[in-house]
Amino acid sequence: MDTERLSVDDLARFAALGTEIERKDYLRTKLGMKRAHFDDDDMRSACLFDFHYANLEFAIESGLAWQQGLDFVRMMTRVLSESAKANRNLFFAVKAIRDELEAITWDARAKQRASRRIFESFLQHYALYRFVCTREREERRDAIDLSLEGPPTRIPLRDGVAESIWRAREERQAIEKRREEKLREIDEKRAQRVKIASEMKENAFEEMSESQDVATAVAKAISARGNASLELVESNLESAEARLDLIIEQLTASTNKR
User: Fold this and answer.
1) In which band, very low, low, confident or very high, does the pLDDT at 220 lie, cut at 50, 70 and 90?
2) Which of 56, 85, 112, 186 has its CA 20 to 30 A from that of 226?
3) b/e for 221-257, b at 16 or more Cβ within 10 A?
4) What is the pLDDT of residues 143-162, one digit of tens each?
5) What are phi and psi of 71, to 5 degrees?
6) Where are the domains of the chain?
7) Among candidates 35, 60, 49, 42, which has minimal Cα distance to 3?
């Protein structure tokens, strides 16, 4: 919104228009804006347009000369750009206004009118202008796509069961799953111990075949074979105990349900 493109003739034509709508349409055209009215999606443009419109209204209704009115509009555009748009505090804005008023060659009465107008309007709402000029609005969404995931399979109503039965089935399935995992773990441990026992026997026979002392070699082989057999027995006992624990767990769960 460049007010530098405005001229004294533009102010005179603006003043000659009879209605607010006509004046806003004219100002929109002179500022190169696409539309005169704004919705909630473009609050910054709406706020800045109202700012320039209010300054132009003051310029033609305050008794200022045409050139003075044009100078006022341009001065306020510079103040807005140097203070609110630059995210400066109120003290800096006041200083910028003072410097602008000291630089223009107006009479004291015209400067007094302009100062009163600035302090009663712009500075009263400076925090709003600063917020609007420096904060980006969050994107407004009129609709959003939501994906909802239903149950994997729909069960016919005739196949429905009471909640207690459903929960019992779920618990039974969980126990069965734990049972399968435990049995798999038991079988893996047993296979490992069988492998160890087999390696012990093979090592013992190799040592016996390479040894010069037959009696000692035979004794070691018998001892290794016994240790391997003991390893297998312990493995079988642990496997049986684990399986028995699983059976007891299942029986306990079934008893508790009853």
Assistant:
1) low
2) 186
3) beebeeebeebbeebeeebeeeeeebeeeeeeeeeee
4) 777 777 776 677 677 777 78
5) -60, -35
6) 3-134, 162-257
7) 49
